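Sequence design from tokenized structure. All designs in this work follow the same two-part layout: the structure record, then the generated sequence. An example of the structure record is given first.
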């Protein structure tokens, strides 16, 4: 299994990071896509990915909630570093309309710019969409090219949001712990999403699945999400693993994985 979204460099793992990765591998999680946030966590991310170069694959990007007064220098940081390593994706990028911000316009500018950089390099994008599908679709409708592809990470949209994403024909749906929450409408929506359009993710250390909701999340709990998805799709967990892993390998170009 591949955890396609895990912030394993987060300080919450400082005390037991190695053990946590051992636990994840023992649970069958063999690869980790590591999304970037901003320049302040970049060195920590790279240190992790260099010491686990066989399984931790870094991305580069400026997260929408890190778009603030210094957004220009943060964006320059992405541009300066994007070709210095074989990053697997540009992300996470997108729009966050959940947390109040005076930088909504700048979030759009930063998102657009990073889509263009990803396209120019043939890289996928990892899109953070929080209460922001309308804005994100407007941006994609405006700047998308035939190269634009990637993942809608931690998808919690409606059936019509999914229909719009499907119409682009080049995005996969990232499914995480929210699927296991008691009142989630996601199981209903995912019934309409074919397994070959889904990748698994934890978003560790956030969004721990039931029955660990509210705790620090870790990649070793990815099988809980796979199991819930297997139940919804009425297939075996092995089949979910096989298809979603193939989707992740294809999306991130993990050819030698
Ligand atoms: Zn994230």
């Amino acid at each position: 299994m591949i955890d396609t979204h895990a912030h394993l460099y987060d300080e919450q793992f400082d005390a037991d990071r190695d053990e946590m990765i051992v636990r994840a591998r023992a649970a069958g999680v063999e690869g980790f896509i590591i999304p970037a946030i901003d320049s302040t966590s970049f060195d920590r991310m790279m240190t992790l990915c260099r010491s686990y170069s066989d399984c931790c694959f870094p991305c580069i990007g400026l997260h929408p909630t890190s778009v603030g007064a210094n957004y220009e220098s943060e964006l320059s940081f992405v541009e300066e570093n994007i070709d210095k390593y074989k990053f697997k994706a540009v992300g996470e990028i997108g729009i966050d309309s959940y947390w109040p911000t005076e930088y909504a316009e700048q979030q759009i500018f930063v998102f657009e710019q990073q889509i263009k950089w990803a396209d120019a390099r043939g890289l996928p994008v990892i899109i953070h969409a929080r209460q922001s599908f309308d804005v994100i679709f407007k941006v994609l409708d405006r700047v998308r090219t035939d190269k634009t592809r990637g993942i809608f990470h931690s998808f919690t949209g409606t059936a019509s949001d999914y229909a719009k994403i499907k119409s682009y024909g080049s995005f996969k749906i990232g499914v995480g712990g929210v699927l296991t929450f008691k009142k989630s409408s996601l199981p209903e929506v995912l019934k309409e999403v074919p397994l070959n359009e889904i990748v698994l993710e934890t978003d560790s250390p956030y969004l721990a699945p039931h029955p660990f909701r509210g705790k620090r999340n870790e990649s070793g709990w990815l099988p809980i999400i796979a199991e819930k998805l297997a139940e919804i799709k009425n297939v075996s967990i092995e089949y979910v693993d096989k298809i979603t892993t193939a989707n992740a390998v294809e999306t991130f170009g993990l050819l030698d994985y």
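Residues 2-252 form a domain with the TIM Barrel fold (CATH 3.20.20.140). We note this feature because it recurs in several other targets discussed in the main text.
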